[in-house]
Amino acid sequence: MIEAQAPQPRRIGFLGGSFDPVHYGHLLIAQDAQEQLALDRVYFVPSPHTPLRDEAPSVDSVHRVAMLDLALQGDERLQVEECEIRLPEPSYTVDTLTRLRRKHADARLFWIVGADHVAKFARWHEPQRLLELAEIIVVSRPGDELAVPEGFPSERFHLVLGHPFAVCSSEIRQRFADGKSARFFLPPTVEAYIETHRLYCD
User: Fold this and answer.
1) How many H helices and E strands in the chain?
2) Which strands make up the sheet holding 11-17, listed edge to edge?
3) Which residue pairs, CB below 8 angstroms and at least 24 apart, start in 185-191?
4) What residues contact residue 38 under an 8 Å CB cut-off, 6+ apart?
5) Angle at 131 between CA 72 and CA 33, to 5 degrees
6) Is residue 185 within 8 Å of residue 24, measured between CB atoms?
7) What is residue 49's predicted lDDT score, i.e. its pLDDT?
8) CB distance 91 to 47 below 8 Å
9) pLDDT in tens for each of the 202 residues of the chain?
10) How far is it, in rounded angstroms, from Cα 138 to Cα 175?
11) CATH of domain 11-197
12) Cβ contacts of residue 131 below 8 Å, gap of 6+?
């Protein structure tokens, strides 16, 4: 008699950020992580404010969530998770993952970051606890040097080779402020939303 194999836990990735606004670079990071590590789903987790950054998001979370919904429309692999913007500030990744672990108790969780964030990992709030809650997916670009932060278990870090995309949200905001086109930087639905609501124009 052949014993039935136990079902494998779902593999769920989370990509945090301000998404101010969301652009093709964010979407490529999520797709690269999803495909290369066979994730069942990737959630975009918009933050109210990133503790390691002094600059707060330029527009309200309502607009940033609406733009994410438009950008991800039609792809069931990619969804929005709003739990972080509802947490009291200051909110840290470990707080978000504690809540997500309760919500996805039987899943294998992954937190997706860029290679530049790994060097700062020791400065994150409760990094050891964070690694107990989730594994880290590091999306690198050609030329990035990746080293697992000293003192942390290497098996909790996974490297993904991402597609190069040199544009950042701050450049896109500046283009709107200058009256320039952002057509090839973000989905047309997001561009239309920004123009309709006159975001980043001041």
Assistant:
1) 7, 6
2) 78-80, 41-46, 11-17, 108-114, 135-140, 157-161
3) 185/23, 185/24, 186/21, 186/22, 186/23, 186/24, 186/71, 187/24, 187/27, 187/70, 187/71, 189/70, 189/71, 189/73, 190/21, 190/22, 190/23, 190/67, 190/70, 190/71
4) 11
5) 30
6) yes
7) 63
8) yes
9) 555 566 789 999 999 999 999 999 999 999 999 999 999 999 999 998 655 555 667 899 999 999 999 999 999 999 999 999 988 877 899 999 999 999 999 999 999 998 888 888 999 999 999 999 999 999 987 777 777 888 899 999 999 999 988 889 999 999 999 999 999 999 999 999 999 999 998 7
10) 29
11) 3.40.50.620
12) 152, 153, 156
In whole angstroms, what is the distance from residue 105 CA to residue 114 CA? 26
Count of Cβ atoms closer than 10 Å to residue 180 Cβ? 10
| Spatial CA neighbour of 110 closest among 27, 40, 25, 173 | 40
Residue type for position 175: R
Give the residue ranges of DSSP H helices in 73-187.
93-103, 115-118, 127-133, 169-177
Q: What is the pTM of this model?
A: 0.91
Collapsing DSSP to helix, strand or coil, 116 comes out as helix
